[in-house]
Specification:
Helices cover about 80% and strands about 0% of the residues. It is an all-alpha fold. The protein has 3 domains: about 190 residues, Growth Hormone, Chain: A; about 55 residues; about 240 residues, Growth Hormone, Chain: A. The longest helix is centred in the C-terminal third of the chain and has 48 residues. It is globular. The chain starts with 15 loop residues before the first helix and ends with a helix. About 55% of the residues are buried.
Length: about 500
């Protein structure tokens, strides 16, 4: 791929590429961090903004869905206007949207601002990876740099709840969004001096119709899942958007199959091995994000920990995920990748099984143990998954496959917040039926707010029922998670069996 900008040919010292990598690591960390940073702030912002159950979930979902839906699109935009230029523009918009999130005065304003954050976040991921590929021309150094880039993604996701909890001690809930400001300042000032521009001579045409169709397919389906699971309104109010989303999905697929230069190469899904491992990546991301959402809220709303204490209790999951991911290369020198991934998924299933039986009576330790085991077991899947996705397709399609793997990661996380968050909320609402006000029946934060206005006996009774309902929701989410991890282990087994037959082993 040729480059039209002369800046890429500037002489570099040995240190310059690594300095550029340090700059590119910042937005990578930020995008991943902002997908989870709200977990510990949700109870407080729900109470202060008066967000409903559905609004609360959209606050967490809007960001990740916009990132997932537009990553591939923004890669094409970067080809046309230049990767560094797109990175700078995206970083500036991300910072402005973060300020709007921090001082949002209503749930709707926060949801819209989170959506704009997601649009900007989608510009950052493909820009950073493309620039790394261009800067590091030695295959060995490039591999190391991409490994560091991938580690930043997992580190940011793990640090999100922790940093959010730390900031909530001295500041208001909106402070969790202001982490973007210093990062944007460093990237916008240092980026033009350190980063080269990168733009291929033959840039792909941006198919705006496909972009719109993809979003019209994803968002109505997610909305339908929320409505049907929570029981808000009639069944028809959920089935109509579901049908609309599926219809636009059909239009999107047909357009991709007919176009000479599709936005998404859906023909890759004809490769069963590719589809299997991509599905496994998305499902693993879904379970991790959904479990983290429910656990961080339980630590605060049921066990009564402060945001900072909840953040500290959440650290083991992030650390174990980092250990599982970073130790996988060494592990695969002793065992086969098949053994590492399948064993990891079964280990995560055991961690989820621990959460099925927790009841809050024994404090945070069983909960932290379960989430830590889940994170440790998921490490090999995330460490090896992208390589397996790319390796399952012909070399000329490797770029498209890598983009899909990145999209699957974010889409899986967003679905986890939507689907598992909705399942937990649905169980809570069903067990709170007829107890307290409508707000108390929607969220445990609403129940706590109502309890603060009641006498001691009535308040204690309401909170006891609400806490038990919330824990039941977590138990249900954990049961679903354990089942999905077992399915993932089976999918991995099928994948490696097919790969073995193909290679003739």
């Amino acid at each position: 791929m040729s480059v039209t900008t002369a800046e890429t040919d500037l002489p570099r010292t040995n240190a310059r590429p690594w300095l550029a990598l340090a700059i590119l690591a910042l937005p990578t960390l930020l995008v991943a961090l902002d997908s989870n940073v709200l977990f510990l702030a949700l109870p407080r912002l729900t109470a202060e903004l008066g967000a409903s159950n559905v609004q609360q979930l959209w606050v967490t979902d809007a960001y990740a869905f916009m990132v997932a839906g537009l990553v591939i699109t923004m890669g094409t935009v970067g080809d046309r206007i230049g990767r560094r230029r797109l990175l700078m523009a995206g970083m500036a918009v991300f910072a402005l949207a973060s300020v709007a999130c921090a001082w949002a005065t209503s749930p709707l304003m926060l949801i819209v601002a989170r959506g704009v954050q997601g649009i900007a976040g989608a510009t950052l991921m493909p820009s950073t990876l493309a620039l790394i590929t261009n800067i590091f021309r030695d295959d060995r150094q490039r591999g190391k740099a991409i490994s560091i880039w991938a580690t930043c993604t997992f580190t940011g996701a793990a640090l999100g709840p922790v940093l959010g909890g730390v900031l909530l001690v001295p500041f208001w809930w909106g402070a969790v969004f202001l982490l973007a400001i210093p990062v944007a300042a460093v990237v916008l000032i240092a980026g033009p001096m350190v980063l080269p521009e990168f733009r291929p001579e033959q840039a792909r045409r941006l198919d705006l119709v496909s972009v719109v169709l993809s979003l019209l397919a994803i968002l109505p389906v997610v909305y339908a899942i929320k409505v049907l699971s929570l029981g808000n309104g009639s069944v028809l109010s959920g089935l109509v958007p579901l049908a609309v989303g599926l219809l636009f999905g059909i239009f999107f697929v047909r357009r991709q199959l007919r176009g000479d230069d599709p936005l998404l190469d859906v023909r890759l899904f004809a490769n069963s091995s590719f589809t299997l491992i991509l599905t496994a990546l998305a499902l693993a991301g879904m379970i991790l994000a959904g479990t983290a959402l429910n656990v961080t809220q339980l630590l605060q709303t049921v066990l009564g920990y402060s945001p900072l204490a909840s953040a500290m209790w959440f650290v083991p999951m992030g650390l174990c995920m980092a250990v599982g991911t970073m130790s996988t290369p060494a592990l695969t020198r002793s065992v086969k990748p098949r053994t590492a991934i399948i064993g990891g998924m079964l280990l995560s299933a055991i961690g989820a099984a621990v959460l099925i039986v927790v009841n809050g009576d024994h404090g945070a330790w069983p909960i932290v143990l379960g989430t830590a085991v889940i994170g440790l077991g998921a490490g090999p899947m995330f460490a090896l998954g992208i390589g397996l996705v790319v390796g399952s397709v012909p070399p000329e399609r490797a770029g498209s496959a890598a983009s899909m793997a990145e999209t699957a990661n974010y889409l899986g996380g967003a679905l986890g917040l939507a689907v598992l968050g909705t399942i937990g909320s649905a169980v809570y609402s069903s067990q709170m039926d007829g107890v307290g006000s409508d707000r108390a029946q929607e969220t445990v934060a609403g129940a706590a707010d109502e309890a603060s206005q009641l006498g001691s006996d009535a308040a204690a009774a309401l909170l006891k029922t609400a806490h038990a309902a919330f824990v039941s929701g977590l138990n249900t989410v954990a049961a679903v998670s354990a089942g999905v991890f077992v399915v993932l282990a089976l999918l991995a087994g099928v994948y490696f069996q097919r790969a073995s037959r193909t290679s003739g082993d």
